[in-house]
Amino acid sequence: MLAGLVGKAWLLILLYTGFMIWEMYIDHNDKLSTLEAQIPKKKQELRKKRNEKKQIEQYLKDIEKARGQIELVAQEVENVQKKLPDVIDDAANLRRVKEISDALNIKNIFLSPLSEENKGFYYTKKYELTGSGTFLQFLILLEKLADSNTLLNVSRVTITRPKRDQRGRFQKVNANIIIEAFRYNSNHQEERGIADIEKQFTKTEKKEPVKKRRRRKK
């Protein structure tokens, strides 16, 4: 009997080898089927990533194109800033407004400096002027302020009529005028804003951990 088993050992080895090969074949087919099932999804993900890449590239091109325009605008703002005086001379400004008002024979003149306000790349200093005269006198006053060598701006004009009855062609009115003077802010630098946008596209994306595939138990 033992001799018979020994004689058939080759058959047992052949059967075992065939079984192992069959198991390997089944395992290989299972893996192949799993991979084939993932192909459509991977293709879709690849197309999505390509589209995202194209969008980002186009966006970065738009940023690069706008960089020159933004820089030009910022330089123009800085050039305007440098043309403003570095200090505001209250005495000189009040004297200038008073001289024009006196020359136009505006009455009851009252001038007072108000607060200074930070506007970013420049500061504004406001002055209040009150007085009485005709519409024409105040119109000429505004024109002369606009033509002044000192950069002055009229931000508000309020005209009221006196309560008393008036006769004559040129009737008197009361005026309240807010005048602004300017000086540049030496501590201000115009922001371009491009660097912050570019940082959003230079950050390293976090990679998702690769899932380990379970091996099929034999």
Keywords:
2 domains; alpha+beta; 218 residues; Alpha-Beta Plaits; four-stranded antiparallel sheet
Brief rundown of the structure:
This protein has 218 residues and is an alpha+beta fold.
Explain the overall architecture:
Helix 2 packs antiparallel against helix 5. The protein is rod-shaped, with a radius of gyration of 43 Å. Helices cover 53% and strands 21% of the residues. The chain has 218 residues and is of the alpha+beta class. The protein has five helices and four strands. The longest helix is centred in the first third of the chain and has 75 residues, at 9-83. Residues 204-211 have low confidence and may be disordered. It has two domains: 12-80; 90-184, Ribosomal protein S6/Translation elongation factor EF1B (Alpha-Beta Plaits). The chain has a four-stranded antiparallel beta sheet with strand order 1-2-4-3.
Summarize the helices and strands and which ones pair or pack.
Layout: H1 2-7, H2 9-83, H3 90-103, E1 107-118, E2 122-133, H4 135-146, E3 152-160, E4 173-184, H5 194-202
Antiparallel strand pairs: 1-2, 2-4, 3-4
Helix pairs in contact: 2-5
Query: Can you count the beta strands?
Result: 4
Percent helix among the residues? Answer: 40-55%
Fourth-tier CATH superfamily name of the largest domain: Ribosomal protein S6/Translation elongation factor EF1B
Q: What summary fits the major beta sheet?
A: 4 strands, antiparallel
Strand order of the largest sheet: 1-2-4-3
